[in-house]
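SAMPLE LOG
Freezer: B-3
Tube label: C17
Construct: single chain, 245 aa
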Amino acid sequence: MRSYTKEEIIAMNFWYELDYNTFSYFEGLTSRDNIQYCNVSPAVKTSLDLIRVKPVIDGKPLYEVYREYNDLIDYIHFKEELDKPVYKPVKDAVDLISGLILSFIHRNFVSNRSVEQRVFELFGQGTLFDNLLNHQRKPRRPPEFRIHRIDGGTGSFYEWHMFIRIAEILQLPKNHKHVSSRWLDIDRYIGLAADINNLMQPAPSDENGTDPENPFIDGSVLITMQNKWTNLDFQQIDDELKNLL
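STRUCTURE (predicted):
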């Protein structure tokens, strides 16, 4: 088994925990390999369906509704619409998932923003080959998913950006201090990871779980990207991500 740096261990544990609790696609692979790769609760599944795919407003999914208001840069009326009592289940879904994400982030990084940013950079590079074992001494990741990387390219990063923007507009999760600034930091890291991913195009592991040994990004290029993304506001992040699509 290869050796890992402290940052790589932190990064892999974070991405593993996030997938284990939210990525229900792994349920089929759990049955195939007889290894529990995920444990997504019914509440999380219901919430993710409400956020991603189910028609919630005028027969449209939440993300489609957000895109329409986003094109108009009209977030006041978007919030007013979602604040209507009839849409409380949707807001509750965003509250649950946003709280879950922030709890994973806090548990793994506490308040260390530099480590947090590095974790997203490593994810964008696709250099996190997770060959670690679970509590049963079995591989904790499916063979073809041993590389922690985005599935779906920039489009998936943009979907994550949309979720963050929605949570920030609605000021969720509830009872969380400094929601806007916290989400802005994370959104910047997502944009940075998307830019790195778009440049590096990391490969997944194969069906045998072989490490593709994706290369690290050039240091000077990374610094340029860092300086760019960590100084953008929400609207600028949205525009830059669209340019990568």
